[in-house]
Amino acid sequence: MKGVDKKKIDEKVKEMLELVKLPDIGNRKPKQLSGGQQQRVALARALISKPNLLLLDEPLSNLDAHLRDEMRELIVTIQQKLNVTTVFVTHDQEEAVLLADKIALIFDGKLQSYASPKEYYEFPINEGVARFFGGVNFLKSTINNSHFETEIGPISYNQKNKNDLLNNHLLTIRPENIEISKTNTFKQNYFSGIVTSIIFSGTNTRYKIKIKNTVLECSVQSVGKKEISENDEVFIYLPEEKIWGMND
Question: Strand, helix or coil at 167?
Answer without folding.
Answer: coil
